[in-house]
Write a structure and sequence with these properties.
By secondary structure, the protein is mainly β. It has one domain: YNR034W-A-like (Profilin-like), CATH 3.40.1840.10. 13% of the residues lie in helices and 45% in strands. This is LADA_0F14774g1_1.
C-alpha cells in the first residue's frame, strides 16, 4: 500500500519520533524539514489529529503513542 492509497493527493511526509527527531522524510516532506518546530508545537484534537494550511499545501498531522506523522497534500 502506498501513501496516496490512504490519503489522496499526498505529496510527501515527515515521520518523527517521541523527541521529534526525524525518522523519515519523503516527497515534498524533504523540502519541509524546517516545519518540524511548528509541527511539534501544534495542538492536536482529542483523537491526535490537526490540520495546518498554507498557500501551497495542507499538512495533516497525526500523533499516536510517541510517533508523529505529518502528511503534505496539495491544496487543489
Amino acid at each position: 500500500m502506498i501513501l496516496t492509497d490512504i490519503i489522496p493527493k499526498a505529496a510527501g511526509m515527515l515521520v518523527l519520533d517521541e523527541n521529534y527527531n526525524l525518522i523519515e522524510a519523503s516527497g515534498v516532506g524533504q523540502q519541509h524539514l524546517a516545519d518540524i518546530p511548528v509541527i511539534r508545537q501544534t495542538e492536536l484534537d482529542g483523537e491526535g489529529f490537526a490540520v495546518l494550511e498554507s498557500s501551497e499545501n495542507r499538512v495533516i498531522i497525526y500523533r499516536q503513542d510517541k510517533a508523529t506523522m505529518a502528511v503534505y497534500t496539495s491544496r487543489d
